[in-house]
Fold 3-phosphoshikimate 1-carboxyvinyltransferase.
Amino acid sequence: MQIKGDCKGLYGSVVVPGDKSISHRAIMLGALADGDTVVYNFLRGQDCLSTISCFRKLGIDIEEFDERIVVHGKGLKGLRKPEDILYVGNSGTTIRIMMGILSGQTFDCVLDGDDSIRKRPMDRVIKPLRQMGAVIDGRDGGFPPITVKGSVLKGINYQMPIASAQVKSSILMASLYAEGETVIYEPVKSRDHTEIMLSYFGGDVTISGNIIVSRPVNRLQPQIVDVAGDISSAAYFIVAGLIVPDSEILIKGVGVNPTRTGIIDALLNMGADIEIINKRIVSSEPVADIRVRTSCLHGITISGDIIPRMIDEIPIFCVAAAMAEGITVIKDASELRVKESDRIYTISRGLRALGADVRETHDGMVIYGRPQNGFNASTVKSFKDHRVAMSMAIAALVAKGETTIEDFECVDISFPGFIEILNGIRRDI
Ligand SMILES: O=C(O)C1=C[C@@H](OP(=O)(O)O)[C@@H](O)[C@H](O)C1
Ligand SMILES: C=C(OP(=O)(O)O)C(=O)O
């Protein structure tokens, strides 16, 4: 993909596709509910389509219409043994949360994914699920393919060693099949869409601070789920609107669940002109419109609790940091090393190719903002990582000349239509 630089301004309003995390969960809980769940604004990105494909193989009828998806749920005990392996493509969320669901079934199955998934650690999920009684294994102790033998589960008390919504959600799904209560202690609060949606579907979940208690229920109630716009996708336009001169963008209908808004808090601390307006609740999740205008940003340090609240946005945050005055330091973000790519390495490498001064540390980066000669166009790798590809596209807007981003089609994993929306608000195209 070629991206023309020297962008003269971005102007207008955009609507980003539905939230990836919420879309996955709507299919999963819809499949386990007794009856039809209707999902509006479902994200038709490859990751969520992988979730649909896995549940179809498990015997769930899922119909796709233009504006909605209908999941014909068969109840907690309604899944049937698949005839094939369950292929999750590039989606960590699909494989990890499904491991929890499949542990409590009465049949065996195998989960596998692409080259990137085969390198991602699954022991973080295997360990607590085994404590619950699951019979589950991975290649070399913890990598896909994963085999799951359905078994009888019991509730556990689990202190999570890392903040991970995928691990938490996998345990919560298994808790639906476990005898007794499951208690999860999170070191730092991670996104809570599973807890919110489980309650919405009639599950028995209580949350107090970082402690979540779940008890099994006899049935889940099907629902209408209107998926909020994905703040992770909105983040590319938020940063673009801040760093491209003469810009003003309104992003409509974005999910602003506080466990996801770390990127907004971090950018506000850098001096960003961001307004959150028209706040409302949609299907139990907070949603708002976000207005951004070109701003003079300055460097900051981010670490600790804010990191899980913006984990997927750190690549695009690095682009903002590289355009800010002064130094930005990112700490406590070693989880980035086990995403679709090692994002500490891949985003540092991409930004350096455009002329930024970025140094890697074991758990983050140090970014010396505003390179003297500005950004200069180059050919950069996406490493087939959708978040790196889109972050580089935004950085390319403020480079001199035309940047080439390799393997750009990977953006379809989370944001089909990204480039069309971006070109639609460029004043110079
Ligand atoms: O639960 C989820 O939907 C997700 C959780 C996060 O992963 P971790 O749980 O590994 O932090 C995030 O990076 C991923 O894109 C989506
Ligand atoms: C890490 C991501 O997703 P997943 O873990 O589901 O592959 C992401 O979308 O940035």
About this structure: The first strand starts at residue 2 and ends at 4.
